[in-house]
Amino acid sequence: MGSISEFIERHFRHFNAAVLKDAADAYIAHLDRGGKMMITLAGAMSTAELGVSLAEMIRRDKVHAITCTLRKTSSISSHAANTNGFPTIGS
């Protein structure tokens, strides 16, 4: 278990924090069973630099599809280029 997982396991026990832990556990179980994950986003993603995080998740086979508005996808496209054959539609 990684350091973030250990932190969540120890500190995220009650109320909304516990729900986040349950969601993280379900996400891991889903991927472990061979499930695929699609993330749906809207808004100006390049300003938040989400492409940096998402590209790493794509490379690690944790995200298999992304749906979003096409206006601000350049951040994801540039970071995710040539990773696991992840297709990019529009720009």
Q: Short description, anyone?
A:
With 91 residues, the chain is mainly alpha-helical.
Strand and helix layout:
Elements: H1 3-11, H2 15-32, E1 38-40, H3 45-48, H4 50-59, E2 65-67, H5 74-80
Parallel strand pairs: 1-2
Please characterize this protein's 3D structure.
- The mean pLDDT is about 75.
- The protein has a two-stranded parallel sheet with strand order 1-2.
- The chain is built from five helices and two strands.
- The radius of gyration is 15 Å and the shape is globular.
- By secondary structure, the chain is mainly alpha-helical.
- It is about 55% helix and about 5% strand.
- Helix 4 packs parallel to helix 5 (about 75-80).
- It starts with a helix and ends in an 11-residue tail after the last helix.
